[in-house]
Each structure stands twice: as structure tokens, then as C-alpha cells.
Design goal:
heterotrimer, A mainly alpha (about 325), B mainly alpha (about 300), C alpha/beta (about 500), A: about 325 residues, mainly alpha, 15 helices, 2 strands, B: mainly alpha, 11 helices
Chain lengths: ~325, ~300, ~500
């Protein structure tokens, strides 16, 4: 009986996702959904990097920017086809990600976060100042959209494409979590000295984590570039990086669904708060940050964790599965 | 490059850098006390500046009253930070990362609050430290008089802190707790009190730094986030997150690096250079450059 | 308890997302029926009738409910009087079963054939009479025996006219959002209080685009797809407009912006739906340079420039302008928004021996520069770009701003009666003086009103047509769409005397 309930709920949920473009023929809704899906990809990468591997990154938009501008430039300036642009974007992001991983060998937590902040800021400043290449603050325009037999993708088409990509990302993370690499990652997260003692190469693990999360961010950036058609440095500031980290934490750092829940919630929350009350346009970001703050303070393990716990209780599953708890800080760390 | 130009840049760099050091102190005290980083550290600076502006320029309450009341409120805010943010997070199972992200959001929250109440346009800081345009001429060097006042206050504050930490009982308790919490409580030190002290000290010092910086940064949202916050962290890092004097020295270094990179390289990449320096320091000497304490941490 | 809250939050989120139903604007309708057939179409969608249309006395009769719903009228049926009524807009039709006398808006009219109840029990009414009474076109094809009724979308002057303003309220350009909104809202309130537009009121919806081109893309889509606005004001930031104006073009909705980059001119964008409400930077910078070269007779200009697109595109125009005069720019110094110390930059400028300083930065940076200029005793004339001519700069710089000359898009001290009336009304309502770009959105709303009245319709396509030809005299003088889709080129050269900006020249 309970198992049927589970099937019904999941079925309804996935069904809803699949037919959303048909239910809501509102292009704006689809556009924001698409942005949410792309954010989910970045947030999932962060969940992987920070939640699984324990490495903090407060400059993740740097990778998104690299992916976006690379693909944009390769297709708009060099005239290459879009798939090449996207691959180039991902490749460059991954390479830079591997480089950024290096400080993580020696630096912990706060110090690492400073390096990632510096990284993000450097990328931003390069975007603004290298005008000849990036267009500077005036932006890079005429980025070709994805096309299906000659006609540009509609929002609906992008939606289904991104859904597939998100599904693949979740699948990848699932496989990784329960794989040898995943176990290594959690070990490094908990205590990398102890992990090294067990012959786990913590450096390789960290490099892998950074590379993967950077690649996902780069993918998201490249796709954004083609969907929107233009790029400016505006969405690549420190506060945007902070927002992505918030997505990962609000969603749940230890959940596979963390990126999904966080990405969806924090992309839609500010949009929904755009109430048509005159004067509210001044307050909505304030309300947004209050809500996020409250969730962070009262539900530190994230909405995703609470959601899965709630759902488990709904269909009376025993919560005996091994859950790795947050590692408590040690003295003097 | 004329000597007077050089000296002017040095003076500017040192003064402003010293205030960055004060901001760094906010980071250091909290780190020493709870081993966590408060990303809303810089918000105290902005809030203090706006509070002072409200009391002095809008309510005409006189310099001393405005100053004392503003800092008192910020000190109370420090306590609120402990009991309304840190404690609930700890209670609900959150750890370092959750605190970091929560304080990040808090920083954004304060920016929004100030924007809503005061608007986004920067306000001129009332000329309590001297007229904005008045300057002192020494030979061919002109130094804004504001700088003198700022430097003076920083000096007094650093000396007072030094006195507090080294010569008073409270200071000793504070340092003891920072070194080893368990031992400290075993010896009968009220760790709870020293933690609260850390919070209030951190926010108050940063608040004072905010008021000091307001003549230069204006009473603006610039005081509450972005590059200036990072500079505070950089100063703290240079001091190894442990040495208060080292933090001030680190701040001064950053101020100087900023000015000289603009002078000799390019103003466009000024911030990049500062960040690169920060990264290099972090990787090369994570223990801090100006860490003159004997122990590691 | 907590879990319940979380579920509630997520469900609310989902509901909010799905709750976005686009508002249906007044649409045109095409109805087609064939004699003797139960198959009909409404806007090409197939519909099945329960009673095929019949012909009597050469007039086609159709089921009364069908035609009423098809044209979108409110249907009434009174069995007591045996009357059928239709109400659509301001047309009221009453028919009596079996009578050839009908009432249209209370006026008696004679029909060629009376409505009747058929043996099948269905009530039928004359389709031509009903349709033509509401102003629809009726066509009869004798070969196919098909009647086509075309209802042209008529603006329902009782529903509010939706307009959307996209402006920056948060983010780095945040100081301008208030002015944009206050200017637009003042006009909207004035218009709504004095009878509206042909009786209909403006409904102004304001969204924050965060001075971020990426957010603007979302906001404009919301305005077009969700709110179905008939016109969009803003974005105010040029790079945002560059990214979104094609959306307006595709949706065929006019976009009226205060953004000032020259790259938004019609010859570059070829967008029939994009208009500019104030002088663009090309014009302003050209005037600025003209003043510097021709009046100040400067020969060695130095420039300090910010890093946003506002600053960099102004720099590009300035370089071109100086070039045309054959004057070489001696030194260009950069600063970033948020920079507080420009000692190095001003020192370099001073050492380069400039004879005039051109300021191409935003307001806070302008204040930082002027404080340093006064401190380092750089005594050359200072000529600033439009951000230098506003209170946000002079309030911050205080006495340091005295003597600064600036090109302005608007000067509240202008003694022109239209300007004064606007300034007084603005001050009365918002408690502060208006500043650029409040005036351009104020003018913009009135301009839109005139365009709607000229077009006689709230159809965005028709409004767009009207905007291209309409003339309106506003705060910015005579506004008329030129070949570049700019409505005005007005600007001032003024000098700050410590309290107000004294106008040196007003162009044109």
C-alpha cells in the first residue's frame, strides 16, 4: 500500500516535470525553468565538490564564465559549430579547475575559500578589462542559438534538452557516490590525513572533484550563452558565486537531490517574490535573503534532506540506510 | 616619479591599510574564539557608518553621543550574532560550512536592509574628522587632514587593544581561551563569557573601522561588501589569523600594494594584483607573513 | 512540524511556478459556419453545433448561444419575455423571439427575419444582424454556403492598459531605478486622475532588473509573455537593452528606453520596436567635446574613465570626437566603480600636463575624483559627462564640485515653465528633486498616451506605428521620432555654483 503511494507520488512528480511545457504555455515560465535547470547543474557540481569532497569554492561562477565566454567566442568570433564551442568551454573550465585544485592540497577551508574568491574575482576583472576579447562591460553579442534543422531552439526544446542533461548529471553523481571514487571522496572529506594513511590519494581525489565541478559549471555556462544569445560580466560576481553555494547548502550538501532542490528553489524564489505591489521591487531581494537565511539557520542539512526524510516517513520506510553525517570540526583545524 | 608623489601614496596606503587591518581584527577575534569565519564581518562597518550618520547628520546628536551609541549598538549586534545565528546553527546540527553560508547571506541581507532604508545613493560623511577637501601641506606633499585623524584613532585603538589583551585579566582570559579552550575552562575561566567578548569585540572594532573609513568610502553600500571585505580577510591572513599586530601590519601592506600597483602598473588591474598577492601569500606562507606569535595557532 | 513547513514551502514554490497564466489580451475572432452543417470553426478551431444553421428569407440563422459565445459576448435569456440579449463592450442587443423588432443600445431596429424557436427546440438568431451590430464583418460565400464573421479586436477601454517598467533598484546602478520609477509613476498617476487614456487607466508594473543584463532578459520575458504588456519602458542600462531588444521586436511590442548608448540607434539595431526617450551619449559627448574645444579652447585633454559600459562607450565617442578636431588626448586614466583612492591616477594626469580634465565616470567615482583633484591642486577646468551633473555627485563632493562643468540630460533649475511644472509636481509627490532620467520616463508615459490615442487602439503593433509619427511636447521639449529612433536630442551644458547648475547653453 505504502509502496504504491510512493510510486504514485514519484510518478506524478516526474509526469509533471515532463509535461510542464504543455501545462504552462508561458514562455517566461519556461525560460526561468531553463535557467533553473542550468543552475541545478552548477549547484550539483558544488554539492559534489563541497558536500562530497569537502572542498569549498566561493568562486564557482568563474568556471561558469569560462565555459560561457569560451563557447560564445568560439562560435561567434571563430564561426565554429556549437557542439565544438560547448566542448571547448567544458574543456577549458576543467583545465582551469584542475589548476585551482592545487591550492586545495595544502590549504583548508577558510584559506581555500579565499583562494577561490580570488579566482572568481580575477576572472571577473579579466572579463571586464579584456575588452578586445570579451567585449568588456558592453558585452559579447550575436552568440548563435542552438538550431534544429535551421530553426532556433524554442524554450520548450531547451527545456527537454536540459532535463536530459540534469538527469544525466544526477545519474553520474549517483554512480560516483556509491563507487570507489565516491567512498574515497567521503573519506577525504572527513579527514584527509587519515585517508592518506589508508593509501587514498587525497590529491587525486581533490583534483577530480574540482575538475568535475568545474566542468559542470562550464557546461552550464556554455549552454546559457547559446540560449540567451549574449554575455555580459554582470552575472559573474562574487555574490553570484555565493548564491550558488547557497543553492547547494539550501538544497542539501549530502543529498544527490541537493543541487536539484537548491537550484530550483533559489532560482524561482526571487522571481516569485516579484509581486506586483508598487514599491515591492525594493524589498523582494531583502525578503529573498531572509528566507534563505531562515532555511540555513533552521535546516542546516538542507531542504533536500528534510524532504527525503519527510517522504520516507510518508511511506513508512525505515530510515536505517547509512547516512554520513556532517563531520564535526576538530580542535585547532 | 617625484618623491612627493611617492610619499603621498605611502601615506594614503598606510592610513587606509591600517583600517583594513582593523577589519581584519574582526575576523581574527572570531576565528580565535569559535574557529569559524564570519563572512558578514564587513557588515558591521557599514552598519556602524550608517548608524553614526543617522545619529549625527540626521538627528543632530553630537559627535560623542553618536559615536558611542552607534558602537554600542554594533556591540549588541555582536551578541545577537552569537545567539541568533551561531547558536541556532549549532543546535540544528550545522557546522562550519553552514555558518559560512549563513553569514554570507547575512552580509547580503544587511546590504538589502540598508538599501531599503537609506537608498542606494552614497551619502557624504559629515566633516567630523575634518573637511573632506581640507589638507595639510608639508613641503610639496598634501595630506588630507582626514588621514591624520583616522591614523590617530587607529593608533589609539590598537594601543588600547594591546593593553586590554596583554595587561588586563580579561585579556589574559581571552588569550588563554583562544589558545586552548579546554584547558582554559579547567583553570576556571568562563569560556562562555570570553566567547561573547570575542563577538562584541569583533563587531565593535570593525564598526569603528567603518566609521573611520566613511570619509573615504562615503556612507555607502561599498562599505558593506565586496572588495573591502576581502581586504579585511587578506589582512587577517597575513597575520596568520592569530596575531593582532600582524593583522594591522598585513592591512598596511595591502594598502601599500594597492596604491603602488596603481602607480606603477595599471589601475584597471589593481584589484587583480591584490588578489594575486593574496593567493601567493596563502600558498607560500599559509601561516601568515606577519605572524609573530610563538605557537602555530 | 519542520518537515511540514518544508513541504509547504516546496508546494508553494511549485504552485507559484504553475500559477503564471498569461493574461489574455483582447483578441480578434473569426467564426465560420456552413448552412446545413453542424461543423463550424472559431479561429480555425473545430466546433460542433447542436443545430445546423438554416436560411430563411435569405438570412442565415444560427443557434443563439453559439454565436454569442463565439463573439465573446455576455448572453442573457429571459424565458418570461422570450428575449435573448447580448452584451459586448458597450453594445447591448436585445431580441425577442418571433419579433422582427430588436433593440440595439435602447434603439429600435427592424430585422429582416425574426429569431425563432425551431421544432427541434433550439433557438436561432440572425447571424448577420448580431455580428454587424457589434461591428464585425460578415462575408457570404454562395458556392460553399459558408458565412464568415470577422470580429476585429477592439480595445476594451474599461480594462487597464498594462505597461511594464524595467529599472535597476538593486545592483550597482541602483541609484537610477528610483528616478525612473518616480518619473513614470508620476505621469501614470496624473493621467489616471484626469480621465486616463480614452477612459482606460494605465497599470504600471515595475520590475527590478538589477542593472544586470542577464536579469533584464528574464524581466522582459516576464513582461512580454506573462504580463502581456502593451509597451515596455526600459531597461535603462544599455548593455541590457542590447541583449533584450530583439525580444520586443519578435513580440511586436514597443520598447521605450532611457538607455543612452549610441549602439542602440536604429541604423545599428534595425529594430522598429525600439525607441529612445532621451539624448544618446553620442550626442551628449559630442556636445561636451565641442564645448571643450570650441569654447574652452583646450588642446591637451586628459580623461578619467570608469569601467561600465556607460563609461566605456562614452570614451569611444569622445576619442572619435577629439579625433575629428585633430586633438590628441594626452592621458587616459582608468578607475573601477567602487575605487576610493585615485591618487595615482590624478597624479599621472597632473604630471601629463593636461589643460582640461574630462570625467567619464559614475557619480560616486566623480566625487572621489573631485576630492582628489582639489587635494592635489589640479587647477584645470573640469568637464564631466552626464553622471557628473546630478545631485548624487554634487551632494557627495560638496564644495569640491563647485566650478565643475557638466553636460546634462536634464537640469531642474531650467526656468522653462514645462520643466518647472514637472519639477514642482515631482517634488510635491516624492519629496525630492527629480534627476536624470526621471524626466525621460515621465515624458515617455505621456508620449505613449498620445500614441495610443492616435492609434485608437491598445494593439502594440498599432501603438508602434503611431509612435513613429506622433509629436509630443514634454519636459524635454519637442519629442518626435527621428531616423535613429531617438525622440529627442536635448542636452544642457551647465556649471555648478555650489547650489544649482547654471545653464551655459541648452541644445538645441
Amino acid at each position: 500500500m505504502r509502496r504504491n503511494l510512493k510510486r504514485i507520488v514519484y510518478g506524478a512528480f516526474f509526469g509533471l516535470i515532463l509535461v510542464l511545457p504543455l501545462l504552462s504555455r508561458n514562455e517566461y515560465v519556461l525560460f526561468v525553468m531553463n535557467k533553473a535547470l542550468l543552475n541545478i547543474i552548477v549547484a550539483s557540481g558544488l554539492v559534489f565538490l563541497t558536500g562530497f569532497a569537502g572542498q569549498i569554492s566561493l568562486g564557482q561562477v568563474g568556471f561558469v564564465a569560462i565555459g560561457a565566454y569560451t563557447s560564445g567566442l568560439v562560435t561567434a568570433r571563430l564561426g565554429m559549430p556549437i557542439p565544438i564551442g560547448i566542448v571547448a568551454g567544458i574543456a577549458l573550465s576543467v583545465i582551469v579547475g584542475l589548476v585551482v585544485a592545487i591550492p586545495s592540497f595544502k590549504l583548508k577551508a577558510f584559506f581555500l575559500s579565499l583562494v577561490t574568491i580570488a579566482f572568481g574575482q580575477i576572472i571577473y576583472l579579466l572579463l571586464v578589462n579584456l575588452t578586445a576579447v570579451t567585449g568588456g562591460s558592453q558585452g559579447l553579442f550575436n552568440i548563435p542559438p542552438m538550431k534544429l534543422s535551421g530553426t532556433p531552439f524554442t524554450n520548450t526544446l531547451y527545456y527537454y534538452l536540459f532535463l536530459v542533461l540534469v538527469a544525466l548529471v544526477i545519474l553520474l553523481m549517483y554512480r560516483l557516490k556509491y563507487s570507489y571514487i565516491g567512498r574515497q571522496m567521503f573519506a577525504v572529506n572527513d579527514d584527509d590525513v587519515a585517508a592518506e594513511a589508508c593509501a587514498i590519494n587525497s590529491r587525486k581525489t581533490k583534483v577530480f572533484a574540482f575538475g568535475l565541478s568545474a566542468g559542470l559549471a562550464g557546461l552550464s555556462g556554455a549552454l546559457t550563452a547559446h540560449m540567451v544569445g549574449f554575455l555580459t560580466p554582470d552575472p559573474f560576481t562574487f555574490f553570484d558565486s555565493a548564491n550558488f553555494v547557497a543553492m547547494a547548502v539550501v538544497g542539501g550538501l549530502r543529498q544527490l537531490s541537493g543541487g536539484v532542490v537548491g537550484g530550483f528553489a533559489l532560482t524561482w524564489l526571487p522571481e516569485l517574490l516579484r509581486l506586483k505591489i508598487s514599491g515591492f521591487e525594493n524589498y523582494y531581494l531583502l525578503v529573498n535573503s531572509v528566507i534563505v537565511l531562515l532555511v540555513l539557520v533552521f535546516l542546516p542539512s538542507g531542504l533536500g534532506a528534510s524532504l527525503s526524510k519527510g517522504l520516507s516517513r510518508l511511506w513508512g520506510e525505515k530510515q536505517g540506510a547509512v547516512t554520513l553525517h556532517n563531520s564535526k570540526s576538530k580542535e585547532g583545524e | 616619479m617625484v618623491l612627493s608623489d611617492l610619499l603621498q601614496n605611502i601615506i594614503g596606503g598606510v592610513t587606509v591599510g591600517a583600517t583594513y587591518g582593523l577589519i581584519g581584527l574582526g575576523v581574527v577575534f572570531l576565528w580565535q574564539s569559535i574557529q569559524r569565519i564570519n563572512f558578514a564581518n564587513i557588515s558591521s562597518a557599514m552598519l556602524a557608518a550608517y548608524l553614526f550618520y543617522t545619529f549625527y547628520a540626521q538627528l543632530h546628536l553630537g559627535f560623542l553621543v553618536s559615536f558611542v551609541v552607534s558602537i554600542a549598538i554594533i556591540a549588541a549586534y555582536g551578541l545577537a550574532l552569537r545567539y541568533l545565528v551561531l547558536e541556532p546553527i549549532n543546535r540544528h546540527g550545522g557546522d562550519k560550512l553552514e555558518f559560512v553560508v549563513a553569514t554570507l547571506m547575512l552580509c547580503i541581507f544587511w546590504l538589502s536592509v540598508v538599501k531599503v532604508i537609506y537608498g542606494g545613493i552614497a551619502k557624504p560623511f559629515p566633516p567630523v574628522f575634518g573637511e573632506a577637501t581640507s589638507f595639510v601641506q608639508i613641503g610639496s606633499i598634501s595630506i588630507p587632514s582626514v588621514y591624520f585623524r583616522i591614523f590617530f584613532v587607529v593608533l589609539v585603538l590598537v594601543l588600547a587593544l594591546h593593553m586590554l589583551l596583554q595587561r588586563t585579566m580579561i585579556g589574559k582570559m581571552f588569550r588563554a581561551t583562544a589558545q586552548n579552550k579546554e584547558m582554559a575552562s579547567l583553570v576556571g575561566i568562563n569560556v562562555d563569557m570570553t566567547t561573547s567578548l570575542a563577538f562584541t569585540l569583533a563587531t565593535s572594532i570593525v564598526g569603528i573601522a567603518g566609521i573611520l573609513l566613511a570619509p573615504i568610502y562615503f556612507v555607502s553600500l561599498d562599505l558593506g561588501g565586496g572588495p573591502i571585505g576581502i581586504k579585511g580577510f587578506a589582512a587577517a591572513v597575513m597575520g596568520g589569523l592569530v596575531d593582532p599586530l600582524g593583522t594591522i601590519a598585513g592591512g598596511i601592506t595591502i594598502g601599500l600594494v594597492e596604491n603602488f600597483s596603481t602607480l606603477f602598473i595599471s589601475s584597471a588591474y589593481k584589484d587583480v594584483i591584490s588578489f594575486v598577492v593574496l593567493v601567493v601569500v596563502l600558498i607560500w606562507k599559509p601561516r601568515g607573513i606577519f605572524n609573530w606569535t610563538t605557537k602555530g595557532d | 512540524m519542520k518537515k511540514a513547513l518544508v513541504m509547504l514551502l516546496l508546494v508553494a514554490l511549485l504552485a507559484g511556478v504553475l500559477g503564471f497564466t498569461p493574461v489574455r489580451a483582447a483578441e480578434g475572432v473569426i467564426v465560420q459556419i456552413t448552412i446545413g452543417s453542424t461543423k463550424a470553426t472559431i479561429n480555425s478551431k473545430a466546433v460542433v453545433l447542436d443545430q445546423p444553421p438554416i436560411i430563411e428569407n435569405g438570412r442565415t440563422l444560427v443557434p443563439f448561444r453559439f454565436i454569442g459565445e463565439a463573439i465573446g459576448a455576455q448572453i442573457g435569456w429571459n424565458p418570461g419575455n422570450r428575449t435573448v440579449s447580448y452584451v459586448l463592450g458597450n453594445v447591448n442587443i436585445v431580441l425577442t423571439i418571433g419579433s422582427i423588432t430588436a433593440m440595439v443600445n435602447g434603439v429600435k431596429t427592424t430585422l429582416d427575419v425574426a429569431p425563432k424557436i425551431l421544432p427541434t427546440g433550439r433557438t436561432v438568431v440572425p447571424i448577420r444582424f448580431i455580428s454587424e451590430s457589434i461591428g464585425a464583418k460578415v462575408d457570404w460565400n454562395a458556392t460553399t454556403r459558408m458565412v464568415t464573421v470577422t470580429v476585429i479586436a477592439k480595445p476594451s477601454w474599461s480594462t487597464p492598459i498594462k505597461i511594464v517598467l524595467s529599472a535597476p533598484f538593486t545592483g550597482s546602478g541602483s541609484i537610477l531605478g528610483e528616478y525612473c520609477k518616480d518619473g513614470a509613476q508620476l505621469a501614470v498617476d496624473e493621467i489616471n486622475a484626469t480621465g486616463g487614456v480614452n477612459g482606460a487607466k494605465f497599470d504600471l508594473i515595475t520590475y527590478d532588473d538589477q542593472a544586470n543584463a542577464s536579469t533584464a532578459a528574464t524581466v522582459v520575458r516576464r513582461a512580454l509573455d506573462s504580463d502581456k504588456a502593451v509597451a515596455i519602458f526600459g531597461p535603462n542600462m544599455s548593455s541590457a537593452v542590447l541583449g533584450v531588444h530583439t525580444l520586443a521586436q519578435q513580440a511586436k511590442v514597443p520598447m521605450l528606453v532611457g538607455a543612452t548608448s549610441p549602439s542602440l540607434r536604429y541604423d545599428t539595431t534595425h529594430n522598429d520596436y525600439l525607441f529612445r526617450l532621451r539624448a544618446d551619449d553620442g550626442v551628449k559627448v559630442a556636445q561636451q567635446v565641442k564645448y571643450i574645444v570650441e569654447i574652452l579652447k583646450a588642446k591637451k585633454p586628459g580623461i578619467i574613465v570608469g569601467s561600465t559600459d556607460y563609461c566605456t562607450s562614452a570614451l569611444a565617442v569622445a576619442k572619435q570626437a577629439f579625433d575629428k578636431y585633430g586633438i590628441k588626448i594626452v592621458d587616459i586614466e582608468n578607475m573601477k566603480e567602487g575605487d576610493k583612492d585615485v591618487t595615482a591616477q590624478v597624479t599621472k594626469l597632473k604630471n601629463a600636463g593636461i589643460d582640461v580634465l574630462v570625467g567619464l565616470t559614475h557619480e560616486p567615482e566623480a566625487a572621489v575624483v573631485m576630492l582628489k583633484v582639489r587635494q592635489l591642486k589640479l587647477t584645470v577646468p573640469i568637464v564631466g559627462f552626464s553622471a557628473w551633473g546630478v545631485p548624487a555627485f554634487t551632494d557627495l563632493a560638496g564644495d569640491a564640485a563647485i566650478g565643475v562643468i557638466s553636460v546634462q540630460g536634464f537640469n531642474p533649475a531650467d526656468t522653462d515653465p514645462t520643466v518647472k511644472k514637472f519639477v514642482d509636481a515631482y517634488k510635491a509627490k516624492w519629496g525630492k528633486e527629480p534627476s536624470d532620467p526621471a524626466q525621460c520616463y515621465y515624458d515617455g508615459v505621456y508620449l505613449l498616451k498620445k500614441a495610443i490615442e492616435t492609434a485608437g487602439s491598445t494593439d502594440p503593433v498599432k501603438i508602434d506605428e503611431a509612435l513613429k509619427t506622433v509629436e509630443y511636447t514634454g519636459v524635454q521639449g519637442l519629442m518626435k521620432c527621428d531616423a535613429l529612433h531617438n525622440f529627442t536630442n536635448i542636452c544642457y551644458i551647465s556649471k555648478f555654483n555650489g547650489k544649482t547648475w547654471e545653464v551655459i547653453s541648452k541644445i538645441p
